[in-house]
Write a structure and sequence with these properties.
471 residues, alpha+beta, Jelly Rolls, nine-stranded mixed sheet, five-stranded antiparallel sheet, 28% strand, binds heme C
């Protein structure tokens, strides 16, 4: 074959390839194909100042992560999402469709090309400084330095009170909690509380709890073990209850006070889509509940709370609840692989709309399911999280609110794996009690409802634990 013939053959082959490529929509490029996916499904977290450690705003910052992206999307590790798709539609569902996963895979396999920058969609205008929503007002917390090597490796939950500065009643339509040092921040929750004459501002307060060798809170006396209950679950009673010592109830004691939190995967509580707002009376304070976890590097966290504020009184009140179990009797037996606590049953005392759910358990948490049981006996599963992952405290925003008539019950069930098969289990051989620390447990099915402004929000729902609300 002469040079010419070879040349002609190559041109034909190249032409053929081009025809094939354009038939399939052209080579997959970052600008044209991948960036739109990243904008829609990833940048909410993957941008400077937000929770993910790397930014996917540009080709330059995303390209080094190409291989990791492929692995993360193929295994569905990213974006984090745990709701069973069989039940409900959620507006913050960022999980990828199969063809989007395929696009990312083809992009990476094809050499992760940028393509023509003119193909790129216009950049999303994210709020500055990592905020998810641009705040009307920012309240700053007090700096706290987490030591590289603290005296003991447990920093107890702390509380802090700062003024709101509100001189008149204020309707808040969103609350976003933003720590500056995410690596050491386990959670920060804020709520609005009445000012008391003895309130001490700007001072961290905590209780040094007596802890055993693995850090679990020690009850003042041995815990009594009760005979198995008829359902065979084998419940135990924490000794401290028998002793009349007030149990360790964490932030959940007054969940009805509308607590907004930063936890991994969630930082914004936005009531605007619900046409609802939270009334913060003049002179109220911000109460911060803060939990830092040392990670070996010193860091000084300066948390902030961003608020959006309504011009006028909203149509609906927002109520967040979650109180579910009696912390004095909650106990997961050693080595139990599928322990079910008593289901949590909440009763709607007024017509309401359901908007948001967020299961909360610790490292032994396995699954949680929320079911509405309507007055006519019909049941509807509204959220099922079959594989709960403690590392992600996601909230699930219903795309359409669910109308819940008065008399409906919300029944929440769940399971724990306290066996050696649970790779996050620090010790399968011990009974696990209710407590704040991750190696203790919680069964806290948070959810948010709204009620018409004519309804007294204190009389809208009955939780399993606070019989007359707020107790
Ligand atoms: C809800 C927030 C959130 C969303 C949405 C999200 N990520 Fe992440 N991502 C994180 C955080 C936080 C980390 C670091 C912690 C970790 O790896 O678990 C991370 C880590 C990663 C990593 C590091 C490798 C790895 O496996 O740990 C990759 C790659 C990644 N994300 C890709 C993506 C892609 C691609 C998308 C969109 C399709 C996406 N993420 C959406 C929060 C998010």
């Amino acid at each position: 074959m002469g040079t010419r013939a070879w040349f002609a053959g190559s041109v034909a082959a190249v032409l053929l390839m081009c025809v094939e490529a354009s038939a399939a929509g052209g080579a997959v490029t970052f600008s044209k194909d991948v960036l739109p996916i990243l904008q829609k499904n990833c940048q909410a977290c993957h941008r400077p100042g937000n929770i993910a450690p790397m930014s996917f705003l540009s080709y330059e910052t995303a390209r080094p992560w190409a291989k990791a992206m492929k692995a993360a999307v193929v295994t569905r590790k990213m974006p984090p999402w745990f709701a069973d798709p069989q039940y409900g539609h959620f507006s913050n569902d960022r999980s990828l469709k199969q063809e989007e996963i395929d696009t990312i895979v083809r992009w990476v396999d094809g050499g992760a090309q940028q393509g023509d920058p003119n193909d790129a969609p216009p950049p999303i205008q994210w709020p500055e400084n990592g905020w998810t929503t641009k705040p009307d007002m920012v309240i700053k917390g007090i700096p706290y330095t987490v030591q590289a090597a603290p005296n003991k490796n447990v920093i107890e939950w702390m509380t802090l009170v700062t003024p709101t500065g509100f001189t008149k009643d204020t309707w808040i339509t969103s609350v976003e909690v933003k720590p500056s040092e995410l690596a050491v921040t386990h959670h920060i929750c804020v709520s609005f509380v009445p000012h008391r004459p003895d309130t001490v501002y700007n001072t961290f307060l905590w209780v040094d709890k007596q802890r055993d060798e693995i850090g679990a809170e020690v009850a003042p006396s041995a815990r009594k073990i009760l005979a198995p209950t008829p359902d065979g679950r084998g419940r135990e009673l924490a000794g401290r209850a028998a002793e009349g010592v007030s149990p360790n109830t964490g932030t959940n004691t007054n969940a009805e006070q509308n607590i907004s939190c930063y936890v991994p995967g969630r930082s914004l509580s936005d009531f605007r889509p619900y046409k609802a707002a939270l009334l913060v009376p003049a002179g109220y304070d911000v109460s911060w509940n803060i939990h830092y976890t040392p990670n070996g590097a010193a860091a000084t966290d300066v948390p902030e709370v961003g608020l959006t504020i309504a011009k006028e009184q909203p149509q609906r009140y927002l109520i967040e609840t979650g109180n579910s179990v009696d912390p004095t009797t909650f106990a997961i037996p050693a080595n139990a692989a599928n322990y079910a606590p008593e289901p949590a049953v909440f009763t709607f005392l007024a017509d309401a709309e359901l908007h948001w759910m967020s299961p909360h358990m610790h490292v032994r948490g396995k699954d949680m399911k929320y079911t509405l049981v309507f007055p006519d006996g019909k049941e509807q599963v509204v959220l099922n999280v079959p594989r709960y992952d403690f590392n992600w405290q996601l909230g699930y925003d219903l795309a359409q609110p669910i109308k819940v008539p008065k008399g409906t019950k919300m029944v929440v069930t769940g399971h724990y794996d306290n066996s050696a098969n649970n790779k996050f289990n620090p010790d399968p051989n011990r009974t696990v009690y209710f407590g704040n620390m991750t190696w203790e447990e919680m069964f806290t099915p948070f959810f948010a409802i709204t009620v018409d402004k004519s309804v007294d929000p204190k009389k809208a729902i009955k939780s399993p634990r606070n019989i007359d609300n707020g107790a």
